[in-house]
Design goal:
Distance between the termini: 73 Å
Number of helices: 15
Largest sheet: 6 strands, mixed
Strand content: 15-25%
Helix content: 25-40%
Structural class: alpha/beta
Number of domains: 3
């Protein structure tokens, strides 16, 4: 009885506070108020991270930005349903959003997070506050296409209903609410592991850059599993940083999308119908490239000799990221490890820059240009690709390289991503 009394009391106070706000902002008849604020018996399931975030905000542990992100998720996933012409939206989020959230809402948020009022009451209240402009959210982040209608790449793990819509470009970009880092320079949240999705209303545009209906194209993309392993904790870069002496041999790790130097590209190619193989598959079966008329390399920095020979001898290759083929490794499939052999200033007794002495290495100066404001493809003629080719055809096997690091383009630049993918399809 005590819990019931407390629960009922707080629901009443919750709507009383809203009623006070109503009386100070507009005049509504009692019937309208009753209809607007009658909580529904059930609402769609709310992810646990939202209640956690709301609770943190209510207790002053995170900023209003995190709270608004949770509310935006509820709108985007039709848990908060805004009909007619809402007034509680602004073109862009202000730098300080304190004024758009009535401070008394923190009490209600605290009660909900603590389980003292039901989901339906909290959602109904927020719904009315947003609709009537009392609490405002950025319309730029509102995405009214249900997540169920968005095609996410098969390589993305997890329940897509937990993702937050970040913005729209060529692809719809989502993030997971718990995958971020705090920038030491400015203290701001930086999202990691962006998740790309196909918008069903952009299919005509996707058809122009995809391989779904193009049987003439046999293209394969090589995902850099070995390079992801080298960057992972306990890998080669811990050795370079002086954290360990034996990290030149490390266990192969299945990367997540936090390895974003290829995570963005691999999602885009997967969504657009390209064949995807890992460099492990390529190393075990170099002849697999004979099944394809075009090979697309990503940030394949650490590769085996077998991989190097197979790719450089192929007639049509696009090295989409600078820094490919920078160091040679050996793979032990029994122990499931890779070992650094040569390159990246290794071994210390005979340091070399490129482990294959590859004359087309374009790591410098292009690797660190990730804005790609003047991105170009430029051709190279790798003599390895012309071995055994008739003299009259010598030079016909053209490989292509890029003059910048195009990772960000895939999710941040609408026309840039479209033009890049269209050019890749046309190469």
């Amino acid at each position: 009885m005590k819990f019931f009394y407390k629960y009922t009391q707080r629901v009443i106070i919750f709507f009383l506070l809203i009623g006070i706000t109503v009386s100070s902002t507009t005049i509504l008849n009692s019937w309208a108020i009753h209809e607007e604020f009658k909580p529904t018996e059930e609402v769609p399931p709310i992810p646990s991270w939202i209640k956690k975030t709301v609770g943190w905000w209510a207790y002053g542990q995170v900023t209003e930005i995190e709270f608004i992100e949770g509310i935006t998720y509820l709108i985007n996933n039709r848990i908060i349903v805004i009909t007619d012409s809402p007034t509680g939206f602004m073109a862009n989020s202000p730098g300080d959003v304190e004024y758009v959230i009535p401070k008394w809402i923190k009490n209600n948020a605290r009660w909900w997070a603590d389980g003292d009022i039901p989901d339906s009451a909290f959602v109904s209240g927020l719904q009315w506050l947003i609709k009537n402009g009392i609490m405002q959210v950025s319309i730029a982040k509102i995405h009214l296409i249900p997540i169920d209608d968005i095609k996410i790449a098969d390589i993305v793990a997890g329940d897509k209903h937990d993702f937050i819509h970040l913005f729209s470009a060529l692809f719809e970009t989502y993030v997971h609410p718990e995958q971020y880092m705090i920038d030491d320079a400015d203290g701001l949240k930086k999202w990691i592991s962006p998740i790309l999705g196909l918008n069903p209303y952009k299919m005509d545009r996707y058809n122009e850059i995809a391989l779904w209906h193009d049987d003439s194209q046999k293209a394969v993309v090589v995902f850099p599993l070995f390079t992801a392993t080298a960057y992972a904790p306990g890998g080669f870069y811990d050795y370079y940083r002086g954290k360990c002496d034996d990290c030149t041999t490390t266990t192969i790790k299945i990367p997540g999308l936090e390895y974003t130097s290829s995570g963005n590209a691999i999602q885009a190619f997967d969504l657009l119908g390209y064949d995807i193989i890992s460099d492990e598959t390529l190393d075990k079966n170099p002849g697999i490239l004979k099944n394809y008329n075009k090979v697309i390399m990503l940030h394949n920095e650490y590769v085996t000799r077998a991989m190097f020979d197979a790719v450089t001898s192929h007639p049509k290759v696009l090295y989409l990221y600078p820094n490919a083929f920078y160091a040679e490794i050996d793979v032990n499939y029994i122990d499931n490890t890779i070992t650094l052999i040569r390159g990246h200033d290794y071994p210390p007794e005979d340091p070399v820059s490129n482990g294959f002495d590859w004359e087309f290495d374009n790591t410098h100066p292009y690797e660190y240009d990730n804005e790609c404001l003047t991105m170009q493809f430029y051709p190279i003629i790798d003599p390895r690709s012309n071995v055994g080719v008739d003299v009259a055809r010598a030079g016909s096997n053209t490989h292509w390289m890029t003059n910048c690091y195009p990772d960000i383009i895939f999710y941040s630049n609408d026309d840039g991503a479209y033009n890049l993918l269209k050019a890749i399809k046309g190469l």
